[in-house]
Design a protein that fits this description.
binds flavin-adenine dinucleotide; Enolase-like, domain 1; flavin adenine dinucleotide binding; 5-stranded parallel β-sheet; FAD/NAD(P)-binding domain; Pyr_nuc-diS_OxRdtase; binds nicotinamide-adenine-dinucleotide; flavoprotein; alpha/beta; EC 1.8.1.4; 23 strands; oxidoreductase; single chain
Amino acid sequence: MAIIGAGTAGLAAERAARKNGASTVLIDPAFAGTTCATVGCMPSKLLIAAAREAHRIGRAGLFGIDIDAARVDGPAVLRRVRAERDRFAALTRESIESLPDGVAIRARARFTGPDRLLLDTGRIIEARAIIVANGSAPVLPDAFAALRDVAITSETVFELADLPRRLAVIGSGAIGLELAQAFAHLGVEVALFDRADRVANIRCPKVQATLRDILERDLDLHLGVGVVARKHEHGVHLSWSGRDQGDGLFDKVLVAVGRHPQIRGLDLDRAGVELDPRGVPVHDRATMRCGDSTIFLAGDVAADLPLLHEASHDGAIAGRNAVALPAAVRSDRNTRFSITFTEPTLATIGDAEADGAVTGTADFADQGRSRVEGRNEGKLTLYAAAPDGRLIGADLIAPAGEHLAHILAWAIQRRVTATELLELPFYHPTIEEGLKQALRTICAATPLPLPQNQDAGTPAGA
Ligand SMILES: Cc1cc2nc3c(=O)[nH]c(=O)nc-3n(C[C@H](O)[C@H](O)[C@H](O)COP(=O)(O)OP(=O)(O)OC[C@H]3O[C@@H](n4cnc5c(N)ncnc54)[C@H](O)[C@@H]3O)c2cc1C
Ligand SMILES: NC(=O)c1ccc[n+]([C@@H]2O[C@H](COP(=O)([O-])OP(=O)(O)OC[C@H]3O[C@@H](n4cnc5c(N)ncnc54)[C@H](O)[C@@H]3O)[C@@H](O)[C@H]2O)c1
């Protein structure tokens, strides 16, 4: 079994294939550690963690605590990001070093036939099955690439020696949102641009409006605009037009306009698989197999849901199925689920629309525990199928949103109804109590009876 790419998906695929009895090779040009550990989930969350502390200190006055002279030490913030990031990356490299002898092959691979790879070292690998797990890379349009070091992406942003004074962020997807808000909370003057009219393509208009209000407190938001960038002796000059227009000078521009699957150079046309219009092999998400071939995909390169838990699940499914050939072990996929680590947290779960879907909403402005904590802003919209009130999806921006999102994703995957969730215990006073409001509105809209053995009232501040 040959696996191309030693990221999260490739490592999971190699483990699964070996566990199921295959002899494996894992091919990667660098073995630098996964995208997640080196330039993805972990360094971004480390920067966000620093930003959260700075933001919390800024709000201390709300609780009667006077903190003067708090100052963000930019180089120190970025040093911690890199030191902790390097620790995570070293752990992933250790897992590669502990592979059996001969499994890891340092090279770049390309197809010369459906079961044959040519490595840039000249070595030829023939395999019973090949799993393609070589990830994705940031899109950097030519106009920004021409700016050279003034234009940064998620691959380079964590290498900055200091925080910029003024930062432009292009793209309000997951990367743009998380990093724009984090830099703003660290005291950087940030302007965020998107050609789309909606931030992060959020489905629910109430959640969208709440997020925009929150963002606009800390940064300049320009939606529905096209941006033209020009190098300037002091950084980069941007001019924008569309729904609004203007121009400004920035030290750096962070380009976060999406990621593309790394298929260039793989010579997939020689692999004998059907390619979609983007050049990605057509595959079945239940097995990750490409048609009737002996080729499988896993992770971001498949361009399905470029998220860490999906990459890891893809790898396990592909590795197992590659060994099971010609049999197929079909796996149910998890409820679609993404969390963007803004403050408060944004999450999108499952479906929004279905025949006869009803909605339930909750507002965190007056929710007890959120108010106690001074974090009382946010909106939640739940979607349920009529007539039984089975939960099918949710959009939310809420304090403790990552925890609410997990509860909801698990309930949706388990096909739980609003009534059944209301029958479960809710501790007081917690942010989770905010869910009751939305669940009750689902019951009222369906209509469904509220559980008879539960109080329909609201304890102080629930
Ligand atoms: C800034 C940022 C923040 C993120 N935050 C989150 C988050 O909070 N939560 C979340 O769920 N997801 C997050 N993601 C997404 C997540 O990181 C990815 O979905 C995940 O890392 C993809 O894993 P992968 O195994 O597909 O790819 P990778 O880890 O990129 O692995 C691909 C490997 O393939 C190798 N390779 C490439 N070409 C070849 C070739 N020709 N031959 C051999 N090897 C090759 C590469 O060297 C690399 O090692 C984030 C991403 C970014 C960029
Ligand atoms: N918390 C998380 O789970 C997390 C965090 C970061 C990244 N990720 C993953 O990484 C992927 C890539 O993130 P991303 O933010 O780069 O991409 P994205 O696809 O999420 O968002 C890109 C944004 O850029 C905008 N855009 C595209 N071209 C533009 C242009 N020329 N000018 C202005 N705006 C433009 C789009 O309208 C869109 O809003 C995400 O899809 C996500 O799966 C996940």
